[in-house]
Amino acid sequence: MLSARQAVGNIPAYHPPLGGRDGLRLDFNENTVGCSPRVLERLRTLTCEDLARYPEREPVEAQVTEFLGVPKQDLLLTNGVDEAIHLLCQTYLDPGDEALIVVPTYSMYRIYMASAGAQVIAVPADSDFRLPVNAVRNGITARTRMIAIANPNNPTGTFTALDQLLGIARAAPDAAILIDEAYFEFCGQSILPERKTVPNLFITRTFSKVYGLGGLRAGVLIGPSDQMPSLRRVCSPYNVNAAALACIPDAIEDRAYVDRYVNEAIQSRSRLESMLRSRGIRYWPSQANFVLAQVGSTKSAAQAFVEHMRRRGILIRNRSADYGCEGCVRITVGPEEHTQRLLTALDAVLGELLISEGATRP
User: Fold this and answer.
1) Does the pTM of the predicted model rise above 0.70?
2) What is the pLDDT of residues 121-146, one digit of tens each?
3) I need a surface site. Which of 17, 100, 265, 325 has the fewest CB within 10 A?
4) Residues 294, 190: one domain?
5) DSSP bridge pairs for 177
6) CA distances, 48 to each of 44, 45, 53, 82, 240 (Å)
7) Contact 110, 101 (CB under 8 A)
């Protein structure tokens, strides 16, 4: 009888709560106002012929490489960062290899690593959700073939110093080191300028967050010149759709739109953290476009908080299933008008549930 590989059967299921997302969507770290108007205008120019042709990735890759300041041969456009993670796992992991993550973190690292048959080694973050550098280095063995670190991390928003990441990469020369910079724009610090100092470093960026193109699925994978040909062999030649390729140039050219959104999100993050602090709600200082806050001691308490916010038209994410995050919710921030709606609802819900009485500050 036909059956899937054992490794596939062991993969934990990922069930994003996508159904019934009516309201202000502060649950998926999306750009809450959407893409640049220039992108929308570009979409309207697409013709039947444009959609009938197989997409050509290379011309747009050339524009993105110029934008990021890397050689063309070092960059690959992908179907979101998820595909980049998948390609790395398929290229470098054999069954029985070890792949290392620090939990809590983005769920798809574990899923793609496990799908390749690797043994996933989960190193717990420090009590304040900082990356435990010594524990990571101690977890590296002769079987370690991949390490994935989000910086800033999701769902915690914590940022790891670049010299510490480089030290980890140098300590595992036989492993592919992925630094996922999906939220780079909200912290302004990148390991990209240091990429040539270590030969096993890969970096991902996304158009799903600050650029507001989550629905078009477009990401970037940057890696060493001698390694990228192997990743291209694994990758489909038509992996990024024509609409995404048409829109990427306009997205990166409208710097004023991106900068304005980033500045407003950073200000909103500060306002949210200030309110949580004033109400005695424990939170973790964030370098991303979201804040992780502990609104109770159990998953059910966090879910009750989520439901109360939903009734007021605000969607946030219960992260209690993540390691060390019991009772925690993740709240996305955006422009000022959205933040005011969020804070008004948050104040009312805190009063309804009296959460602040049992919470502690970080």
Assistant:
1) yes
2) 999 999 899 999 999 999 999 999 99
3) 17
4) no
5) 147, 201
6) 11, 10, 9, 29, 18
7) yes
